[in-house]
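User: Can you predict the 3D structure for this chain?
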Amino acid sequence: MAHRWTITGGPDDLPDIAPDQPVLIAGPTASGKSALALRIARDQGGVIVNADASQVYDCWRVITARPGPGDEAAAPHLLYGHIGWNAPYSTGHWLREVTPLLSGGERPIITGGTGLYFTALTEGMAEIPATPPEIRAEADTRPLDDLLAGLDRHTRVGLDLRNRARVQRAWEVLRATGRGLADWQAATPAPALPLSGAMPILVDAPREWLLPRIETRFDAMLAMGALDEVAAMLDRYDPALPAFRAIGVPELADHLSGRITLDEARARATIATRQYAKRQRSWFRGKMRNWSVFRPDM
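Assistant: Here is the predicted structure, written as structure tokens:
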């Protein structure tokens, strides 16, 4: 791709981007994606659009590191905190919401860590029928091994078998439609935004730079009120709902319920964040080889 480049440095080192060219910014958690998007919006124009599955929920700001009021005042932000805690929301919902933002108005700067959102946007997404509530309820009660055993062979090959949400989604699709997820994906329509029509930037944060940021991040969240945020939702806590799977929420819910100490919650959340960042980095490097690479200056 003609625009592909690799830069090591800070946001000031980024090249100018055509004012009508959509920008995509993907990267692991805690890598500074939001700050990079904000700098581009301030200096080169655009509206920042969320591509993080946990940041869509209105009940979470601190615990998901959603942009704060100061950032939102500095540049327009869309698709952040606009979904209720118990509302259904999927990659398909996000794609339907983001597609109209690609034409007209300010150019979108789409940023987040949910890789499936980016692949749906740039590669297309199969139009799979909605899962009936009774099938989803049944899937919620099944252990991961049962869900894995119920998948078709073609779907298993391309699936992250450790990711319960994706395994469960594949199981639900097969159960509801009689057709494997891989077969549905093979019939994918044209993408809403082909990669050639955007400036795709992958924040490739080195492990030795990223881990210290992760280690201090949860303490910063606690100082900003993360515990109060989770406490306000504790009476509605349901681990089966996607909103309550955000890293830090189960751990703080366990602490608030008296099952673990705050130090244990902090340690578990930090470990979960490190593991998630590792999975993200591996996924992005495998799926986004044609993206321009931005390496934060250490």
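DSSP finds 13 helices and seven strands in the chain. The CA atoms of residues 28 and 282 lie 10 Å apart.
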